Structures are given as C-alpha cells and as structure tokens.
C-alpha cells in the first residue's frame, strides 16, 4: 500500500452548566489538499489478431465477460455485491498460430467440435527440420480434451497430414505412422493421447538448407462422436523481428535461434556417445551462421556460399552467439562482393565432429559428424520503381481503443474508432495503424516499401510499453517489433508533446496487388489532469530509386486521420477514490448525568456522514477498506470529556471504541463494487458514550479531529 491520504472532520459538542437549549452548529464539509490516489496493479490484457490464411483458420472459442457496476446514493447497510458465476462451458480456447517468436513454449488448442471435444498440444510450435541427427526438441504430446466434465470420449484413430503428402494414421496404442516426404510421425500412446514427433529428415524443403514451415493438420477420430482437429504451427526455430522477404539495398536484418530449443539440442549433442565405435572422441562442436547466393532462386540446388560465421561452442556458449545480423544487398564496390541481385539464404546449424578407430589389424582413424539445422529464411532482392508514377500507394487507417474501459471508445459516424473519451489515470490505451498497399504487380516491380518510419505524437501523460509492439502481415503472421526500433522523444516543435517513432515498418506485398498490414501497441495513462490531446499519425518509406540510383530514393508518404484523447479531469485526478467527510455534531448536553448515556448525532438533512466518489475503472475495483481514527483527545481545551466515541456496527450490536493511534474499519467493499457514500441509522455508526454514575460535565465546546482513510483491503 503506497498511500495514506488524510481526510479530516471535527467532532463538536456543546456542554452547558444549565440545561438550556443551544441551537446546533451549522456544519460544512471539510476540505483537503490533495485527492486520494489508488495504486493500480498491472493486469496484462493480451489481444490477438487472428487472421485466416491459406494454411489454416484460427479459432477463438466461446468466451464471455461479465462487467458490472453497483451504484447507490447512500449506503445504509453492509451488502454483498452481485456476483456472476460463468458457465463452465464458456471456456476460452485460443488457437495461437502466429509467429514462432512468441509461441515456442505455449499450449495450442483446436476448435471445439459439436460434442464439446477439442485437441490440445503441449507446445505452441513444433520444431520440424531438414536435419536433426540427435532427434531432440521436436516432440509434443497431443491430448483429447472436453469442455464437459468427465466426458467419456476416446480416440480410435490419430491422423496427421502436412503439405501435399498423403495423411497417415495411428490406429492402436504403440503404433507409429510416418509421413513419407516430411518425416513427421505420430504414435498413439493411450486412448486419449498421442506423441507427435517433428521431422528430422525433411526432404520437401522448397529452399535448399531450409526446413519447410506451415502447419500440421491433426485429426482425432472419436468413438461414437464427431472428430476433432487441430492445426499446429511448425518448422524451424530461427526468427527475425525485422525480416522481410524482399529487401532493398543495404538492408540490415537480425536473426536469432530460440534459446530453449538450442539448449536442448546443444546438451544432447555435447553428451553424444557411441559405444559401438572404438576410441570414439568428440573433436569439435560449433555453431554456424550461413549465408549463400541463390542465382536461380528456389531452383538453385547448390547455392554458392557467401559466408559461414563459425563459433566454437564445445566448452559452452554465450546467449549473444544465438543471434546474428546481416547487411543484405550491399551497394557493390571494389571492396565488397557483389550480392545484388541474387536471392540469399540465411540459416543456422550446430555441427558436432567426432573421430573413431576402424579396422582390426591396421586400424585407421575415421571421422563422423552430427548436424542439427535450426532453420532460417530466404531473402529476395526488391525490384523497385524508377519513376514516381510506378510507386505503390499506401493508405493509413488508424484506430484507438481504451482497453480498460470499452465504454470510453467513441466511434464516429463512419464507425471509425478515432477517439477515446473520459480517459482516466492508469487506463490502458491501444493504438492501431492499418496499412493498405496497392500496386501494379503485372511487371517485375515487387511493390516493397522499405526503410519505413511510423510516427505518432504522444501525450506526455502517456507511458508507452515498448515491448507491446506487434506487426501483422497480410497472411496473418504476427511478429514482435524489437524495442530498439522504438523511440520516444520530446517534440522539438511542441514541448507539450512527445514523438513516438517506429523504424523498419517495412511493407512487403509478396507479389499481391492489394495487401493489408497492421501495427499495434499499448500505452498507459500516467496523468489525466490535462487538456484534450489531438494527434495525427504519419508513415514514410522508400518505394524506389530515381533511375535506379540508390542515392536518390523515391519516398512514399501517408497520413492517418486526426485522433482524440479526452482526459476526464472534471473528477478527482487519478481515476481513484475521493472522500469528503462532514463535521459531526452531537448537539448540546446537560451538565450533569446520573447514568450512562449514548448520544446520537444531530441530523443534517439526511446528508451522508462520509461522501465517497469512486472514479475507478471496472478492472481496478479491488476491495477497499475505509477506516476512521481519532487524532487527539476530546477536550474543551483544558478538560477531557468524560466519555468516548464509539463505532456501532450497522450489522449487529457490537461496538469498537475510537482510540488515538488505532484506526477502526467502518466499511469494507467487495471486489468489483463501486463504493458509495456512507450514512448510518440514528443508533448506528459513530456515537458518543457518556460515562454515568453522577458525572459532571464542565462547560465548553469539546472537539477532536478524525482521520478518514481508504486503502487496499489486506
């Protein structure tokens, strides 16, 4: 708990030596200097753009979210807020078939069939390559699941299919079926599970040295039920956050191997042994980052090597060695090899070398080798326009959403979400840029836009999450943008703004004349006490070169539509809880009492004792506790009052005395509850107890201060 704001009110008592009536004192609400600020706990919300492509249809099964807000002008009793129990069948099943970069260790689930069954794989991505001599890091368990408890269904046949090869099936426990070309296999291990092994000898790779990607179609034939299916993403485990298929001259790209997969392969290779070989000895273990020419494109059977960057890892490796960068299609000069305009292949291999003795009478030393290919990519040169008339056209269609409070989203008359209103502190704001690229693809022009920059003005009250940037291409493949390509700096032309810049937002239509791309990222409001913020995003990239001269780029510009963030600064800043206590008056008292007296508060037109304004977003409405604490003695300046303040629980007859230094809880809210102002029945809440036994009360005005606090319930 990081706050403890004080809200003070006064207790007023008029005590006279005579039993005459004194007019009750007029009370006013106490004032306070700063509003209370509720600390928010981060609730990460993941949104996935699952775009169908030619390989598969991504499915998001049934999901429902109940949002509620309870309001009341006055709280008269402790109550339990409405709670909603979701139906057990409303299970969210996300088939996460996106870029391997973010999927290696996730679970993948398929569609729920008509009988409630679905398939689950214990990985999000299956390593399947052209060569994996140690046959590790490529196995997953697939299981039959159901959204219904104790569902009796069992699997009688597991079938897998990949690419153009015919499907194969495992029909009994222990039986293995292997795809002929790719080499992937499946083995039924029980009536509800199977083991799937990714290829170790893929012969169907389109590009030499590179494993085929795509998806594995898995089908479970369920006894006396409809079949269930799953599309599992698979291929190599080398990824690149800035990869594009068609690269321009002097384009730098970065590649990396998934560390978990590499570590498993590395440990298996390093511990490799052959007891059947005499004098077996490992002589080397090296990581190779390879790049080659492919003069004939995909038809090249023997690519010409450009480079083989070798690192000795026999005695261990550093994580930085799992990454590499290459400058593609360097502008040719006398000191560099001519790399343009040839296709380049980039891939990584881990190679183990060993020796052994062969022969009896005259043994000779033989050598052997194990290889694991982690995959990579093929990069083709761009063929770009040489005149402005040939340039592609880009349209930028931007959106903005409040992920914390969807009611904040404000579409215009065209249904475009260009504004969010009543935005409060700690609201999560999502920015979206939709790019549409069109070009004439009837010639050699590849339509590629490279070295691009996306720029958007950002309010200084917005904290951008540089790890949230995701880019989706026209096929629905999602890649994470490296935070190094994102920068936020003060706008030199306007000190009230920041400029967010995203570099290398490259658009590659891959030969299609009309394609769409999407950039999404998130920010968090850190200060809502500011004026409305309007902004317009822009995009700029290179679409070609005048007369093919690399020093004369032809730029393509696009501007989005003006957007608005309306900050709710008419309520307490911070989107939190504010308290406004009133002065409490117990009226006039007789100067002499013979028995114990419990004095009620003087009514103040039924006004709440404590006004509460709850401006939290629905997702931030955690349980809160309101407490009151007496700050000093109840005195007339010199004499202490012969009694005490007590809090009488509205739900029972128990009471708690107020003491200095001891806060007393008076209200505890529920999770999800909107807190309301507090008032009590006459005989409940804060009351004044006067000690009896012929007690004399010296005349005067008796006062004390109360400290009201609200904090997270522990």
What would you say about this model in short?
With 714 residues, the chain is mainly beta. 2% of the residues lie in helices and 42% in strands. The chain has one helix and 47 strands.
Give me the secondary-structure topology.
Elements: E1 7-15, E2 108-109, E3 117-121, E4 126-127, E5 139-146, E6 155-161, E7 168-170, E8 176-178, E9 185-188, E10 193-197, E11 215-222, E12 228-235, E13 238-239, E14 246-247, E15 251-257, H1 259-270, E16 278-294, E17 304-312, E18 323-328, E19 343-358, E20 364-381, E21 393-402, E22 409-411, E23 417-423, E24 428-438, E25 450-459, E26 462-464, E27 470-472, E28 478-480, E29 486-490, E30 497-503, E31 514-525, E32 533-535, E33 538-545, E34 553-559, E35 563-567, E36 577-581, E37 584-589, E38 592-593, E39 597-599, E40 610-614, E41 624-630, E42 643-648, E43 655-657, E44 664-668, E45 685-690, E46 695-696, E47 700-712
Parallel strand pairs: 1-37, 4-12, 14-20, 23-35
Antiparallel strand pairs: 1-47, 2-3, 3-5, 5-10, 6-7, 6-11, 8-9, 9-10, 11-12, 13-15, 15-18, 16-17, 16-19, 19-20, 21-24, 22-23, 24-31, 25-30, 25-33, 26-31, 27-28, 27-31, 29-30, 32-35, 33-34, 36-40, 38-46, 39-45, 41-44, 41-47, 42-43, 42-45
């Amino acid at each position: 708990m990081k706050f403890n704001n004080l809200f003070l009110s006064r207790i007023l008592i008029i005590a006279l030596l005579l039993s005459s009536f004194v007019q009750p004192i007029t009370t006013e609400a106490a004032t306070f200097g700063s509003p209370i600020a509720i600390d928010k706990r981060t609730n990460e919300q993941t949104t996935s753009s699952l775009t169908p492509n030619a390989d598969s249809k991504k499915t998001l099964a049934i999901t429902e979210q109940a949002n509620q807000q309870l309001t009341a002008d006055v709280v008269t009793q402790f109550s339990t807020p409405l709670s909603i129990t979701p139906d057990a069948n409303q299970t969210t099943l996300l088939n996460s078939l996106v870029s391997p970069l973010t999927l290696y260790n996730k679970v993948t689930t398929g569609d729920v069939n008509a009988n409630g069954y679905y398939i689950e794989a214990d990985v999000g991505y299956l390593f399947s390559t052209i060569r994996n001599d140690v046959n590790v890091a490529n196995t997953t368990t697939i299981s039959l699941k159901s959204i219904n408890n104790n569902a009796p269904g069992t699997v009688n046949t597991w079938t897998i299919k990949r690419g153009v090869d015919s499907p194969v099936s495992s029909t009994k426990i222990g039986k293995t079926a292997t795809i002929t070309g790719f080499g992937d296999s499946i083995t039924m291990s029980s009536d509800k599970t199977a083991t799937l092994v990714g290829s170790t000898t893929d012969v169907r790779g389109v590009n030499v040295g590179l494993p085929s990607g795509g998806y594995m179609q898995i089908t479970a034939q369920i006894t006396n039920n409809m079949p269930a299916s799953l599309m599992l993403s698979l291929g190599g485990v080398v990824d690149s956050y800035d990869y594009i298929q068609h690269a321009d001259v002097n384009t730098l790209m970065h590649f990396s191997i998934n560390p978990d997969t590499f570590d498993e392969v590395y440990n298996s290779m390093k511990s490799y042994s052959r007891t059947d070989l005499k004098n077996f000895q490992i002589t080397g273990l090296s990581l190779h980052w390879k790049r080659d020419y492919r003069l004939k494109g995909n038809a090249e059977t023997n690519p010409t090597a450009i480079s083989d960057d070798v690192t000795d890892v026999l005695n261990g490796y550093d994580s930085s060695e799992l990454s590499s960068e290459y400058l593609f299609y360097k502008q040719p000069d006398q000191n560099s090899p001519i790399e343009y305009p040839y296709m380049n292949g980039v891939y990584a291999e881990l190679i183990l070398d060993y020796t052994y003795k062969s022969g009896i009478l005259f043994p000779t030393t033989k050598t052997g080798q194990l290889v694991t290919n982690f995959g990579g990519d093929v990069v083709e040169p761009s063929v770009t326009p040489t005149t402005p008339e040939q340039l592609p056209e880009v349209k930028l269609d931007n959106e903005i959403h409040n992920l914390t409070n969807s009611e904040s989203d404000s579409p215009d008359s065209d249904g475009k979400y260009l504004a969010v209103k009543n935005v409060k502190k700690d609201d999560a704001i999502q920015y979206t840029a939709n790019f549409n690229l069109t070009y004439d693809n009837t010639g050699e022009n590849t339509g590629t836009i490279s070295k691009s920059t996306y720029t958007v003005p950002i309010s200084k009250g917005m904290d951008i999450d540089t790890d949230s940037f995701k880019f989706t291409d026209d096929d629905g493949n999602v890649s994470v943008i490296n935070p190094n390509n994102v920068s936020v700096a003060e706008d030199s032309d306007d000190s009230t703004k920041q400029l967010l810049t995203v570099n290398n937002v490259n658009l590659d239509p891959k030969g299609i004349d009309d394609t769409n791309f999407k950039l999404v990222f998130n920010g968090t409001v850190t200060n809502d006490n500011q004026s409305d913020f309007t902004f317009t995003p822009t995009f700029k990239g290179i679409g070609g070169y005048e007369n093919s001269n690399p020093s004369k780029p032809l730029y393509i510009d696009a501007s989005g539509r003006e957007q608005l963030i309306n900050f709710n600064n008419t309520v307490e800043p911070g989107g939190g809880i504010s308290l406004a206590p009133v002065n409490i008056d117990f009226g006039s008292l007789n100067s002499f009492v013979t028995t114990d007296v419990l004095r009620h508060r003087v009514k103040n037109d039924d006004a709440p004792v404590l006004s509460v304004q709850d401006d939290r977003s629905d997702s931030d409405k955690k349980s809160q506790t309101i407490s009151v604490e007496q700050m000093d003695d109840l005195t007339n300046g010199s004499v202490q009052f012969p009694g005490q303040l007590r809090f009488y629980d509205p739900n029972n007859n128990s009471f708690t005395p107020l003491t200095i230094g001891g806060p007393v809880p008076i209200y505890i809210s529920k999770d999800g509850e909107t807190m309301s102002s507090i008032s009590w029945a006459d005989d409940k809440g804060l009351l004044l107890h006067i000690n009896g036994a012929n007690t004399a009360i010296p005349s005067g005005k008796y006062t004390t201060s109360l400290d009201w606090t609200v904090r997270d319930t522990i």
